[in-house]
Amino acid sequence: MEIKFEKAERLDEGTEAVIYKSGALVAKVLHNSQNADSNVLQNIRERLTKEYEIARDLYENKISVPKPFGVFDLPFENGKKCPAFIMQYIDGKNLSELMESYKNARISLRLYDNAKELAAIQIEAAKKIGLVPYDANAKGNIMLSKSGRIYLIDFGQWQRVNPRR
Length: 165
What we know:
Layout: E1 9-13, E2 17-22, E3 25-30, H1 38-60, E4 68-75, E5 81-88, E6 92-94, H2 95-101, H3 106-128, E7 131-133, E8 142-145, E9 150-152, E10 158-160
Antiparallel strand pairs: 1-2, 2-3, 3-5, 4-5, 6-8, 7-10, 8-9
């Protein structure tokens, strides 16, 4: 599969990674990737591949997650290629952003509660296939798209509790 990831813009930054957007795709790049030696890059690639495999299993089991495409080496300004987990861009807000944008509005509490309920349903479905998120309560890991669909995002803290392979 060929992935075109050109003219990327920095979309967001978390404690461990930077998210870049290019068209309908996003790339998760770990902070230490651009200055890492080959051994560290291999560890990063393995970690992102694990994250991709979890996202793929969730997606294939109809759990609401962005469509994952894989782990690819992306070129950066310094000419170095860094592993990145590529997935579908979701146009929306995470629950933290949602609460911030609707501060003091009663509708925001209902919308927030509904979003949390829908996310809990998705998480329970994931548990049934042996996948458990250890940070799903983090408001930044649940997104509400502009079309009103809930998505679970960020699979770095997910674990297989009953491996299917």
